[in-house]
Amino acid sequence: xxxxxxxxxxxxxxxxxxxxxxxxxxxxxxxxxxxxxxxxxxxxxxxxxxxxxxxxxxxxxxxxxxxxxxxxxxxxxxxxxxxxxxxxxxxxxxxxxxxxxxxxxxxxxxxxxxxxxxxxxxxxxxxxxxxxxxxxxxxxxxxxxxxxxxxxxxxxxxxxxxxxxxxxxxxxxxxxxxxxxxxxxxxxxxxxxxxxxxxxxxxxxxxxxxxxxxxxxxxxxxxxxxxxxxxxxxxxxxxxxxxxxxxxxxxxxxxxxxxxxxxxxxxxxxxxxxxxxxxxxxxxxxxxxxxxxxxxxxxxxxxxxxxxxxxxxxxxxxxxx
Length: 321
Ligand SMILES: Cc1ncc(C[n+]2csc(CCOP(=O)(O)OP(=O)(O)O)c2C)c(N)n1
Prior knowledge:
The chain is of the alpha/beta class. Helices cover 45% and strands 10% of the residues. The chain contains 13 helices and 7 strands. A 5-stranded parallel β-sheet has the order 1-2-3-7-6, sandwiched between helices. It has a two-stranded antiparallel ribbon with strand order 4-5. Strand 4 and strand 5 (180-181) form a beta hairpin. Helix 2 runs parallel beside helix 9 (209-224). The radius of gyration is 19 Å and the shape is globular. The termini are far apart. The mean pLDDT is 97.
């Protein structure tokens, strides 16, 4: 482990923050106070955090419909996000976007997106801006196994290669596209397909923060150096349904339970960090308690936050030049 204890502490906290944010939303969602679809990221924490811990403030990310984890990993305020998910006027998007449309341009988070694959062209544009600035910044897009079959992804890959852009394609294979297994839906393997575009692929174990961090570090360094686009391919699972309310009848009975008990990302990082003597279990428990208190207070204030008035609903609809 080449990271400092402080870096590891930060990564662990970020992963715990995502895990608890999502587990809590799973409890809150059926209460009926959250409008629209909610897609949870629990299980995939090591991927978002392993990638984003390699990023700088000036780098950009584009998320997916399953975006809370990416937003938190890039540094978006959990309270502002919770208020947004509850549709509150003081949420990150003034309550107009909800779960699927969280953005925070100040943090380089260019947006989550309900149209599968639609983030790709935006991320190519951001990568072009990074190249023009010439400051070594990069643009990162997160893409699911299902989204990887969209034409927008192929176009983005080709254009990023042709223009030699500092673009990082993070391919997150969680095994399913809605209810369709990746093995059924993907015509060849993601690695060779991506390499076919001329993009080097760095593979990682998506349950293991350190594996993702190392693969992403190598990939991102290559992109910063001006060598053109790269990809990080990580495999993990999602613990909840495609959306909240999905009964997951397409999964084997004990599938999620087995993942939670064996390769779980939080369990893995805890075992590695305590095993290497970097932090004790009690020190990690303290971080967990601090995060849980933060989530409690974010949910409480979001439930009581102000609803947007008509003035807010009508603002930022059209762009004035
Ligand atoms: C263009 C488009 N086609 C289809 C959908 C419906 N849809 C929403 S999510 C999804 C599956 C995405 O799967 P994947 O990219 O693997 O991400 P995951 O949900 O597994 O995180 C589909 C087909 C959509 N929102 N947009």
